[in-house]
Specification:
Number of strands: 13
Radius of gyration: 20 Å
Order of helices and strands: EHEHEHEHHEHEEHEEEHEEHEHH
Mean pLDDT: 93
Strand content: 15-25%
Shape: globular
Structural class: alpha/beta
Distance between the termini: 35 Å
Helix content: 40-55%
């Protein structure tokens, strides 16, 4: 019998990659989205459902009809900066919608068999002393943004639904993930778009940047979705939390230098004070050993390939 997966937020950055990965494995993939569905998604064979996560009864009916073996909950608000100006919206999108989904799963006919993966963030850890790098899953959470608080809340609810109700649920905490088609507002996407605009003559050859000293943990989105899949194939991992990270730090300066090296244009880098923000956390690395032990996963796509793919995608206007 063909395995079935339901992906919430399927037309988002990560959702599209996960859907393609599962379809290539032979899955029947269903996806929910609030927005209109682009041809790129529907052409890949996803059974699209224009549905929000705010109607519990509707979700129960949907689950009973589809009867997925696995649910990948990707829908939510993922912008840290936006969470400061839209705190209530962030809470509703990340916490309330997750609770609505979990309640629907609990009251559905598939509650005892379906496996659920919820996606959190490294922002749940917040400010961590450098001596504690790389960050392990059992460190005390100290989120410092409304977004981080919302995702930390999700992790606590997931643990509760496993311990109290026995739902087969696991929580992932991905660190920075990058790749082609990522929307603006993230460092690789922003740098890459500026370089592409320079190459196409849409702007002058000045590339504006903010803080370049910070070091972060970057993983290709295609490696991220493989980790999501592998987690839901395991036994005895429910109720647990897993970092998804590269286990190493790369400076924003190195990201910029590599992207510039991939272009034949002469590019002048200019510091933009409006983009400068104090770096309270100069280095941030996730420990991925727990995930490796549970699944055998490790990142396979090198940074240079990811950045090359990002630039080529923009040049093709994918």
């Amino acid at each position: 019998m063909t395995a079935r997966a339901l992906i919430t937020g399927v037309n988002g950055f990560v959702g599209q990659y996960l859907a393609e990965y599962l379809i290539n494995l032979g899955y029947e993939v269903w996806g929910t989205t609030r927005q209109g569905c682009p041809n790129l998604v529907s052409d890949k064979g996803i059974r699209l459902l224009k549905s929000g996560l705010d109607n519990q009864d509707e979700l129960i009916d949907l689950l009973n009809e589809i009867r997925p073996d696995e649910i990948y909950h990707l829908a939510g608000q993922s912008n840290v900066k936006e969470s400061w100006s839209n705190k209530v919206t962030t809470l509703e999108a990340n916490v309330v919608s997750t609770l609505t989904l979990l309640e629907a799963v609990l009251k559905s006919e598939i509650a005892n068999k379906v496996r659920v993966l919820t996606v959190g963030s490294s922002e749940e850890y917040g400010k961590v002393d450098g001596s504690l790098m790389p960050i392990k899953e059992d460190i005390q959470l100290n989120p410092i943004s409304p977004y981080g608080i919302s995702k930390a809340s999700v992790s606590f609810y997931c643990k509760q639904y496993y311990e109290v109700y026995g739902l087969k649920i696991v929580h992932a905490r991905p660190f920075n993930h990058i790749g082609p088609k990522q929307r603006l507002g993230f460092v690789v996407a922003d740098f890459s778009q500026q370089i592409a605009d320079i190459e196409f003559g849409r702007k002058d050859n000045i590339l504006c940047v903010g803080n370049l000293e910070s070091k972060r943990d970057f993983t290709d989105v295609r490696d991220i979705v493989r980790a999501y899949y592998l987690l839901l194939q395991q036994e005895n991992i429910f109720g647990e939390i897993y970092n998804i990270s590269s286990n190493k730090a790369v400076s924003i300066q190195e990201i910029l230098d590599t992207l510039i090296s991939l272009s034949t244009k002469e590019i002048i880098v200019k510091r933009d004070e409006s983009r400068m923000r104090p770096s309270d956390i100069p280095i941030y690395i996730g420990d991925n050993n727990k995930l490796k032990l549970a699944t055998g996963w490790s990142p396979e796509i090198p940074l240079i390939q990811t950045l090359t793919d990002v630039m080529n995608s923009l040049r093709r206007n994918d």
